[in-house]
């Protein structure tokens, strides 16, 4: 089984509006011009698709009151079994844009979403940097083990970008703090 997941955020006048309830936004997964799955966002804007066959898929979002449909194409296969970070921004002027797809084969984080402890698994030592949706770094930590606990209990609920850097490479991922 493969997964495709991401977040939808609301942006207003160059600042993130984090108190916006984003639940129930419909997102379509299209394969060979047919809708094969429909997902709905939770209150934080998170969605996930479970895909059972390899191939190219389109992810489409269209909302009443927004001026266009936005489509992102992704490919899932054995080399790319999980694609996270297929993210969209809803702008207050009625447009929808997408953020680049975040691909990460350097490290793995779980559980996602989390309430207090986020676990990171990687194959080399390095450091992590955690950023909020406004781009402010809110945490950094040295990683000296293949499995590390990151305490996020003091973080405000929301979406965060985590970046792992080591001498073997770098990767990014998103997680949600509930």
Structural commentary:
This protein has 178 residues and is mainly β. The chain is 0% helix and 58% strand. The strands form four sheets. Strands 1, 2, 5, 8, 9 and 10 form a six-stranded mixed sheet that branches. A four-stranded antiparallel sheet has the order 4-3-6-7, with no helix packed on it. Strands 14-13-16-17 form a four-stranded antiparallel sheet, with no helix packed on it. A hairpin with a 6-residue loop joins strand 11 and strand 12. The protein is globular, with a radius of gyration of 17 Å. The mean pLDDT is 81.
Question: Summary?
Answer:
The protein has strands spanning 2-12, 15-16, 26-31, 34-40, 46-51, 55-61, 70-76, 82-84, 87-91, 96-99, 107-110, 117-122, 126-131, 137-143, 147-151, 158-166, 169-177. The protein is an all-beta fold and 178 residues long.
Jot down its keywords:
four-stranded antiparallel sheet; mainly beta; 178 residues; 58% strand; six-stranded mixed sheet
Number of helices: 0
Shape: globular
Largest sheet: 6 strands, mixed
Q: Return the average pLDDT rounded to an integer.
A: 81
Strand content: over 45%
One letter per element, helices H and strands E, the order comes to EEEEEEEEEEEEEEEEE
Q: Which structural class best describes the helix and strand composition?
A: mainly beta
The radius of gyration computed from the alpha-carbon positions, rounded to a whole number of angstroms, is 17 Å
Number of strands: 17
Distance between the termini: 26 Å
Runs in which pLDDT lies below 50 for 5 or more consecutive residues are none
Question: What share of the residues lie within helices?
Answer: under 10%
